[in-house]
Amino acid sequence: MQGYMKAKAVWSGQDARGMGNFDQAVLEINPNNPIVQDLDRMVKFDNESNELENSGLLMYGVASMTSSFNVGDVKGFTQGVMSLMNDQQNEDSSTPKDAEVILIPEIIPEVPV
Fold first, then answer.
1. Considering only CA atoms, which of 38, 33, 37, 27 is closest in space to residue 66?
2. Which residues form the signal peptide (predicted)?
3. pLDDT tens-digit profile of 44-86?
4. What CA–CA distance (Å, rounded) separates 62 from 42?
5. How confident is the model at residue 32 (pLDDT cuts 50, 70, 90)?
6. Distance CA 55, CA 40 (A)
């Protein structure tokens, strides 16, 4: 939004540098979001964990990118995403399957020719 407002000011002939109130970005957090609730749970359980720090930094990075801001530490952001993806893949492969899928061949009746 900040970029849009500055571009609009330049387009209309105003000085974009004079828009000092747009220099400060605000991160709004929805407390009902499941990710935010999970972060809150982690803070209450162990506020010194690496998982909490990584999750918070990832959420901040995603919010920055969504709002068209640059992520300060791109390498750290991508490592966090890859770590999250690896954790998810490891959870999926180690989780026992509740049910086994059995393929039953479909019986097709013969049609007289």
1. 27
2. none
3. 988 888 888 888 888 888 888 888 778 888 888 888 888 888 8
4. 19
5. very high
6. 11
Contact 54, 78 (CB under 8 A): no
CA 93 remoteness from chain centre: 22
Span between the terminal Cα atoms of the chain, in Å = 69
Amino acid at 5: M
At 95, list the tokens: 């989780």
Q: Tell me the two tokens of residue 92.
A: 């999926």
